[in-house]
Design goal:
By secondary structure, the protein is mainly alpha-helical. The protein contains 35 helices and no strands.
Amino acid sequence: MTKLTVINTICRGLSSFPSKVSRGQGPSQPPPLSNQLFNSSPQSGSFRLGDSTFYSLIHHYAHNADFASLHDVLCRMKLQNRVFIEKCFLVIFKAYGRAHLPDKAVELFHRMPHEFHCIPTVKSFNSVLNVIIQEGFYLRALDFYNRSVNAKNTNISPNVLTFNLILKAKCKLGWVDRAIEVFREMPLRKCPPDVYTYCTLMDGLCKENRIDEAVSLLDEMQTEGCFPSPVTFNVLINGVCKKGDLVRAAKLVDNMFLKGCFPNEVTYNTLIHGLCLKGKLDKAVSLLNRMVSSNCIPNDITYGTIVNGLVKQGRVEDAVTLMISMEERGYGVNEYVYSALISGLFKGGKSEDAMKLWTEMMEKGCKPNTVVYSALIDGLCREGKPNEAKEVLSEMIGKGCIPNAYTYSSLMKGFFKTGNCHKAVELWKDMAEHECIHCKVYYSVLIHGLCEVGNLSEAMMVWRHMLDKGCKPDAVAYSSMIQGLCNAGSLEEALKLFNEMLCQETESQPDVITYNILFNALCNQNSISHAIDLLNSMLDRACDPDIATCNIFLRTLREKLDPPQDGREFLDELVIRLLKRQRVFGASKIVQVMLQKFLPPKASTWARVVQELCKPKKAQAAIDKCWRNLDC
């Protein structure tokens, strides 16, 4: 019988035994093993016959995460005074990591010197440290490091990998400055940083929006003789793309080629995602073609990102064309691409094409998930078919897909849109079965729908129900109630609710829609001075007016004053007030409104606007945006 066959025989023989010990019956004796099974290796130094078989068993049980059998093998080795080598513990530590058992790894590490007479080196230490960090226990990892390295009689001298792990933990905690201190100490500890060190620190700096410092490390690492890898450039390109600096990203790609690094799938995906975020879809598609010609294989994320971007720009036909191209190249379209396309087709008024795509998806064997079902339900509701959408909801639940907030809120909106308020309320009550009735999104949709149709009494009932359940209203719920009260002529009650809103958390603070509701109500009651005071308060709270705000006041000045005013001076003064508060973007929007209404600003106001726009050297961008928004 060969050695390998012997080991397999042992493993099969022990596979059923530990199930008893794992239930808390801890064996007083290790499992019986024939002595001949351990006589398969020659004696060498302190090693004895059978040691290699024990080591093979450890590898086998660790690989299969059979920790009960692993425990039994270690017990037998102790009873027979076998030699424990660190390599075996490294295997066990990795197994604990795969099983998400960091506490077990730390416990075994501390048992190594006393119980198993195996002094752990930095290899074991790094292995355990990595297990802790992989589980996201960053503070515990730093504590483990400090206790172990500073302990007396320690045999652990941190190496580059140790410092890389510590840097990672500190960066994950957002302690980038502390990570930099460790980074600067590394050469003093005779551990010069490697490419992974630089990548880790660059990533931490980018996540803290300290892009310039991250990019400066690229030059520093080359000065220190450490050459960047594609991963290095990918970290920096990802950082600048998230910031929207595509020019800098392009320069990094050029630098990448100069350093002998070639873009990979991650590089292209990052650049494509950055282009889509900036709305440069044509360049994203062009880069996709370049990616394919460079023998870099696009993945679902690449195609999904571009398809989603095209849909958001209203270019659904282009998105469908890309999907077809994707299939022709042999890539399967996933559920998220289908959901984006179905949603886009419905929003573009092409419901027949959307349903056709749904049928094709089903015929191709792509099982819809919650996201796709929700897109279909929302689309049907947009088409005024909530009853059909409810049938889809029933099918969805029947197939084990759990509806989310978007699913239910879309269906409720669909019922309100078609005047079926009672069905929306019934749906809200039925949702209690799925334990999601207390979601603030549903309350907001329900309150908004009821107030919109003038059913204030029932909206108040839902409002009180929401408060009784401890669910805090968001800005939508507050604004809807304020709108309902204003429509019912209860302006004083609406203002009381608004003042209550001012005392709430950020997500419940009034937005421009809330203010516009009150501006309209106050102006309709000829309380123009009160509306102006509220406008000043709005500006003080860093909330910029929009075109609806301007239209409310322009109509009031034209219809409520004698003699009527065209509103030019009012808007001109509004621009000045925004500029004094350093709100250049808000001021630019009012200027756009003035130009659309053929109410040009005063020369002095123009001068101030241009002066402010030129400060960040964005004059041309602002002018281009202004022209794009002009209707004339």
